[in-house]
Amino acid sequence: MEKIPILKMGEFLLVTIQVDMHDRLAMALQDDLTKTISQTDARGVLIDISTLEIVDSFIGRMLSNIAAMSRVLDAETVVVGMQPAVAITLVELGLSLPGVRTALNVDAGMELLRASVNANKEMYGSRLH
Amino acid sequence: MAVVSTESVPIKSEPDVVAVRRRVREVSAQLGLSLVDQTKIITAASELARNTIIYGGGGAMQVETLNGPRVGLRLTFEDHGPGIPDIELALRDGFTTGSGLGLGLGGSKRLVNEFDIVSRPGEGTRITITRWK
Fold first, then answer.
1. What count of Cα atoms within 13 Å lies in the side-chain half-sphere of residue B94?
2. Mean pLDDT of the region A102-117
3. Segment B12-21 mean pLDDT
4. Does A129 map to a domain?
5. Domains plus CATH for chain B?
6. B93: chain A residues, CB-CB within 8 Å
7. Cβ neighbours of A95 in B, within 8 Å
8. Are the Cβ atoms of B15 and A88 closer than 8 angstroms?
């Protein structure tokens, strides 16, 4: 079965969704990401959805789930690159992606991740484990 | 109202949702809908196609391009599943009998210009949506 690759970059994980997101693939990504976060001790996840033509309620729920699960695993999630037409549609559909942090592009998203991970380190010191 | 072309796309299993999205994108682009309008009707189609599978046990989408006096795209989702006992309740945001978010029906209604739903318990459901250019 096709898979969405997860790249490790320092303490962050990078996911670029470049295929038509069918439901089973979305579920698999959710599982793969949580596994990879715990295996690699990642502090942040960046999900690039700039090539996604639509985000419906299923994909939206997946993004919210990933953000919630990674938070529980002590990692931040930032979703970047949402197309304006997708954003307009998403809000009219009634979905505001609660709990999901967003940034306009990969650069801004990486900056946001670094800043929030650094802020956490300052506040709580380095990780206990 | 003149129907220019009509075709049927089967919705039997989950990968068909992607096929539905693809076909709606192609047709709405050919009709010259704006990118936002294309995105809206594709998203609505995605929600309704998924409902057709999950709640209707599968069915089909009818695609009609309209021309005269207005240009538009009309999609009809039909299944022969158990039907919706209370349509008003089903249209309410947050209501679901499944495990989703309960945004599919009400949300897709907001994304199109016309929305029509006919459902009879035990016979099935037919939902028609139209987006005008």
1. 0
2. 94
3. 94
4. no
5. 3-132 (3.30.565.10)
6. 94
7. 101, 103, 107
8. no
pLDDT band for A35, please (50, 70, 90 cuts): very high
Give the neighbor-by-neighbor strand order of the sheet with A12-16.
A6-9, A12-16, A44-48, A76-80, A101-103
Tokens linked to B36: 């936002």
Residue contact B42–A95, C-beta within 8 A: no
Share of chain B above pLDDT 70, in %: 99
Q: Which H or E run includes B37?
A: helix B35-54
Look up the CATH number of the domain holding residue A54: 3.30.750.24
On chain A, the residues whose CB falls within 8 A of the CB of B38 are 85
Question: Mind listing the pLDDT tens digit for each residue in A60-95?
Answer: 999 999 999 999 999 999 999 999 999 999 999 998
Exposure of A15 by Cβ count < 10 A (0-12 exposed, 13-18 middle, 19+ buried)? buried
Q: Which helix (H) or strand (E) holds B129?
A: strand B124-132
pTM of the full structure: 0.91
Task: Give the pLDDT of residue A128.
Answer: 53
Q: How many domains does chain A contain in total? A: 1
What 3-state DSSP class applies to B16?
A: helix
Is pLDDT above 80 for B2? yes
Q: Residue A62 falls within a domain, yes or no?
A: yes
Pick from A128, A99, A105, A118: nearest CA to A44: A118
Cβ separation B36–A60 shorter than 8 A: no
First and final C-alpha spacing in chain A: 35
| CB atoms B14 and A56 under 8 Å | no
Q: What is the ipTM of this complex?
A: 0.89
Mean model confidence pLDDT for chain A: 91
Domain enclosing residue A95, as ranges? 6-124
- Nearest by CB to A54, from B21, B93, B104: name it: B21
